[in-house]
Amino acid sequence: MVIGASGGCGASTLVAAIAAAAVRWWPAVVAVDGQVGGAGLDVLFGVDHVGGVRWGALHDVVGPVAADALAQRLPLRDGVRVLSHGRDGGRAPSAAAVAGVMSGLIGAGGPDVVVVDLPRYAVALTDCGGWFPEVATSGEAEPRRAVTTTVVLYSDASVVGLAALAANAHAVKRTLTSRPVNCFVVLRADKVTTGLIQDIEDAVECPVVAVIGHDAVVHRDLSRGVSPGDRVELGSDGQRPPRGRRGWSSSRTALGSVAAAAARICAEIQDAARQEAS
User: Fold this and answer.
1) Calpha distance 78→20 (Å, rounded)
2) Which CATH number is 2-277 given?
3) CA atoms within 13 Å, Cβ hemisphere of 78
4) Which of 84, 184, 242, 250 is deepest in the core (most CB within 10 A)?
5) Binning pLDDT at 50, 70 and 90, where does residue 180 land?
6) What pLDDT does 219 receive?
7) 276 CB burial (10 A radius; 0-12, 13-18, 19+)
8) pLDDT tens string 121-157
9) Predicted structure pTM score
10) Alpha-carbon distance 21 to 86, whole Å?
11) Each residue of 197-213: pLDDT tens digit?
């Protein structure tokens, strides 16, 4: 789950990059658009012209969907299935419909990874708007398999952005208490110091796993219909970037690209899944 804690920093772009990176780690990946009224996640993937199911066709969903059947009807780009909102002015899906879709996707027949562009308001609602169906049903619904939940809080490093980050971090910890949740922070900044990163980590009690500077490559790629994260950056050995204190970047003040941040997050997700499995 990616939450744009402060608007305008490119959370949807990060979602697309994570999904594009995830297909190099897991065989089945679905990206889910939670931003009704936005451009649509299918635009970022360059599949807005491709036919397939959008949220508008799922308003009447009752109970968990058949994830495999849904996935086959979603637009596909480079291994990622995309469930997007359209641009027809349709209404937002109900919490029940969202819960039905999410229950199916995280259920026994669902994909390996589901990456969600989560609306900020969701974690402030009692039922989370259906996005975390196990919260709304006190753990009695799907999944019927082990599920690792990771929340990525994405914020710019301004005063206003960091205030929003703190509010969202506290909301996540207050609301999502029915299951373990791994919470990470990604910062959007053109300049950041080690001291600021440490202060943020202490304040929100979440590790800062990546800092994204201005990424001209992403802007150029989007204008050409290239998905963010298509050029995933790994370490020199083809594996994950170096790890440091408490498990995140040892280059604490270095500014990375969106693709590098996506690769880092996928590494953290895999580590979290291994730890829960053990």
Assistant:
1) 7
2) 3.40.50.300
3) 23
4) 84
5) confident
6) 66
7) middle
8) 898 888 889 998 875 444 444 456 778 899 999 999 9
9) 0.85
10) 24
11) 999 999 999 999 999 98
SS3 letters for the chain? CEEECCCCCCHHHHHHHHHHHHCCCCCCEEEEECCCCCCCHHHHHCCCCCCCCCHHHHCCCCCCCCHHHHHHCCCEECCEEEECCCCCCCCCCCHHHHHHHHHHHCCCCCCCEEEEEECHHHHHCCCHHHCCHHHHCCCCCCCCCCCCEEEEEEEECCHHHHHHHHHHHHHHHHHCCCCCEEEEEEEECCCCCHHHHHHHHHHHCCCEEEEECCCHHHHHHHHCCCCCCCCCCCCCCCCCCCECHHHCECCCCCCECHHHHHHHHHHHHHHHHHHHHC
> Which residue is listed with tokens 């658009």?
33
Nearest one of 40, 109, 108 to 68, comparing CA atoms: 109
CB 240 within 8 A of CB 267: yes
Token pair for 246:
């408490």
**Residue 33 predicted with pLDDT over 80:** yes
> Which structure tokens are listed for 119?
């609306």
Beta strand 29-33 with 80-83: parallel, antiparallel or unpaired?
parallel
Tokens of 37: 């009224």
